[in-house]
Write a structure and sequence with these properties.
230 residues; alpha+beta; OB fold (Dihydrolipoamide Acetyltransferase, E2P); de novo design (two linked rop proteins); elongated
């Protein structure tokens, strides 16, 4: 079967002396691994498309017996021009890629989550909202789209975890994130303490539902970003 799908490149690494393997979150088939043969050749024109964060369209002939699919044709859907200019945006985007790669199962489609991922990166690109809000929104989407309920009244986690108090800024922000009311969130009115609480609350939920999530390296890099006051 010939598959034509948009995709976000999650991770790309070397394979042998001349090839690359690229894991992509595709719109219609979920996480798929592709082999790009001869990608390291100086005359190869396909490898630039498979840099992490690239938003591409891929055409390939699906072979269910193969772990690695072979690309027939690839093109850019959109080139991010603003994200690479900001260390904050790059750091948050890389963390989103790592989260997606870790939580997604291969060949398990999540079309709505893919659309939310693209929406998140477009927010980063346009800055119509603060990147922190978009990042929190994607964390909520990972949980909800994969069937895990976010109960903001849940105080059943073990000692030391974050329990949000009803009607506090952190509680109300999480509520708006769940409802998708991003434009109603004003980051300037959220204190450093509340930003910490929101981040820790979502992080503990992800750790609870996804075994080994706490080992992801990107969270160590972005931790302080959420506590900045610009």
């Amino acid at each position: 079967m010939i598959i034509n799908t948009d995709a976000i490149v999650l991770k790309t690494f070397s394979y042998g002396e001349t090839s690359l393997i690229s894991r992509c979150f595709t719109k219609y088939n979920g996480k798929i691994s592709f082999i790009i043969k001869g990608a390291k050749s100086k005359t190869n024109l396909i490898s630039p498309y498979f840099q992490p964060l690239s938003y591409i369209n891929i055409i390939y002939k699906e072979n269910e017996k193969r772990e690695l699919q072979i690309v027939s044709k690839v093109s850019f859907v959109q080139i991010w021009t603003q994200i690479p200019l900001s260390l904050k945006k790059v750091s948050l985007a890389q963390s989103i890629l790592e989260i997606s790669d870790f939580t997604l199962e291969k060949n398990d489609p999540y079309q709505n989550l893919f659309n939310i991922l693209i929406k998140t990166f477009k927010i980063f690109e346009s800055r119509i909202l603060d990147e922190n809000i978009a990042f929190w929104y994607y964390e909520c989407a990972i949980l909800s789209e994969m069937g895990f309920m976010i109960n903001i009244n849940d105080d059943s986690f073990e000692h030391g975890s974050i329990a949000l108090k009803k009607n506090d800024p952190g509680y109300l922000t999480i509520q708006k994130l769940i409802q998708g009311k991003l434009m109603d969130i004003n980051l300037d009115k959220i204190s450093i303490k509340d930003r910490k609480d929101i981040s820790k609350f979502l992080y503990q939920k992800l750790c609870f539902y996804f075994e080994g999530f706490e080992k992801l390296k990107s969270f160590k890099v972005i931790k302080d970003i959420f506590y900045e006051v610009e």
